[in-house]
Design a protein that fits this description.
Blueprint (H helix, E strand, L loop, with lengths): L1 E6 L1 H5 L4 H15 L7 E5 L2 E6 L4 H8 L5 E10 L3 H18 L4 E8 L8 H15 L4 E2 L6 E7 L3 E4 L3 E5 L8 E5 L5 H11 L3 E8 L6 H18 L2 E7 L1 H10 L5 H19 L5 E2 L12 H8 L6 E2 L7 H11 L2 H4 L6 H5 L10 H8 L4 H9 L3 E5 L8
Parallel strand pairs: 5-6, 5-7, 10-11, 10-13, 11-12, 13-14
Antiparallel strand pairs: 1-3, 1-4, 2-3, 4-8, 4-9, 7-8, 12-15
The chain binds adenosine-5'-triphosphate (ATP) and magnesium ion.
The site of magnesium ion (MG) has 3 residues, from loops.
């Protein structure tokens, strides 16, 4: 039987919540593997075991690699509790590990949870270690700093596994509250949403457009980005809202240099209202300390003061190159750089206040009928439920 052994370290620390976290993680694994109908997923002794015969390891690993809350996993072979079978399984796994990496040294680590098996751990390690040592000419034993660790776990049956692969980390999706992500078509906000989701936060998204000034494709691009994130989170709700009237009104009634910051405050205020309607208790943006008007510290403070919900900005201190690295890793980068304009770029004024002052901004904003503008914008809402299977064309 092929078995993938899943480890979820950080969860183990959260003693009182542990059962709940494990349940959510198992449920997420099941959802992620729904297209594989003959896998058995169960929990035992602080691990999750995924057992299957019909599929290749790689097919299952591709899915498991997208589940938050997994520290590491290992391909394993399940056998009866016998030294002969342990030797054979260890040999096969080492052989396979050597095709991937040129290991020079190894050691065998044994965990004997089942004391009914009478051979004790050090003796198992000695026997299996000796067998591997004899089977592979170029492999030496190093008990202090081995390249490769072969593990033998003795339970009701035994599991043997060799190299452990790092998982995605984080916490199971759904254990961290719910938040409204302001999702643009840019590079940063999809990464910000993915990072919060990685900490277990359920992410719902809102996107603003200025159709017909922006094309239908710019919204589809955002839906596509949400879909890439849904590979990790499962179904994700995306609201799309037209803020053309708000932009026109700001342009008409406020000084040019405050356009960006007032526009950002409206985006934030609408997001807060929508968040509250949908049970979200915070907002997320891809903002970052930078030298553009709305992202200086003064600008960010002025945006904060437009709402009462906290705004989480996981990328606040990241360098662009580091953000791009994550975008590549999670596969959003290529979509983010598609050349469909965002609503801000269409309206961007030439002069911008980089050190705006709250009283000034509020004074100009007070001229506008905030509530009406926000409610009118909200009446244009279109909501999409995006899953990895949703057809999105553009
Ligand atoms: P991004 O790459 O995420 O667009 P950016 O560095 O280009 O970020 P801005 O375009 O100024 O910066 O946007 C800052 C943040 O404001 C974005 O990360 C996003 O959270 C939010 N935002 C910007 N434009 C929109 C939009 N059209 N719809 C929803 N949220 C938006
Ligand atoms: Mg942008």
């Amino acid at each position: 039987m092929k078995t993938l052994i899943i480890k979820y370290g950080e969860l183990a620390l959260k003693k009182s919540n542990r059962g709940y976290f494990e349940k959510v993680l198992i449920n997420n694994l099941k959802l992620n593997l729904t297209s594989f109908n003959e896998v058995d997923i169960r929990r035992e002794h602080g691990r999750i075991f995924i057992e299957f015969d019909k599929y290749e390891f790689e097919e299952i690993i591709e899915k498991v690699n997208k589940v938050y809350g997994i520290v590491g996993f290992a391909k394993s072979i399940k056998i009866e509790n016998s030294i002969d079978e342990m030797n054979e399984a260890a040999k096969n796994l080492v052989e396979e590990a050597l095709t991937r990496k040129n290991y020079k040294t190894f050691k065998v680590v044994v965990n004997r949870a089942n004391k009914a098996f009478k051979v004790k751990s050090p003796e198992i390690a000695r026997l299996v270690g000796g067998y591997i040592y004899n089977a592979f000419e170029d492999l030496d034993v190093d008990v202090h700093n081995p390249d490769l660790i072969v593990k033998v776990e003795v339970r009701k049956q035994s599991y043997v596994y060799a190299d452990e692969v790092k998982g995605l980390g984080g916490l199971p999706y759904g254990t961290g509250g719910k938040s409204m992500l302001l999702l643009s078509g840019g590079i940063d906000s999809p990464v910000a949403g993915w990072m919060m989701a990685k900490r277990g936060v359920v992410v719902e998204a809102v996107h603003y457009h200025t159709y017909p000034f922006t094309s239908k494709q710019s919204t589809e691009k955002v839906l596509k980005l949400a879909q890439i994130i849904s590979n990790y989170t499962g179904e994700i709700k995306v609201h799309s809202i037209n803020i053309l009237e708000i932009y026109k009104t700001i342009q008409e009634k406020c000084p040019k240099k405050h356009f960006t910051i007032i526009g950002r405050r409206f985006m934030t205020m609408i997001a807060e209202k929508l968040a509250k309607q949908n049970g979200c208790i915070s907002l997320i943006t891809g903002e970052n300390i930078a030298q553009v008007a709305s992202q200086t510290m003064e600008g960010l403070n002025i945006t904060n003061s437009s709402v009462s919900l906290p705004i989480f900005r996981p990328l606040i201190a990241f360098d662009k190159l580091d953000i791009i690295e994550i975008a590549n890793k999670i596969d959003t980068y290529e979509t983010s750089i598609l050349p469909f304009e965002d609503c801000c770029t269409v309206f961007l004024p030439s002069r911008v206040e980089v050190r705006p002052n709250l009283d000034d901004v509020v004074k100009y904003e007070d001229v506008l009928d905030r509530e009406k503008l926000i409610n009118d914008a909200l009446s244009t809402i279109k909501t999409y439920q995006i899953t990895p299977e949703t057809e999105i064309e553009f």
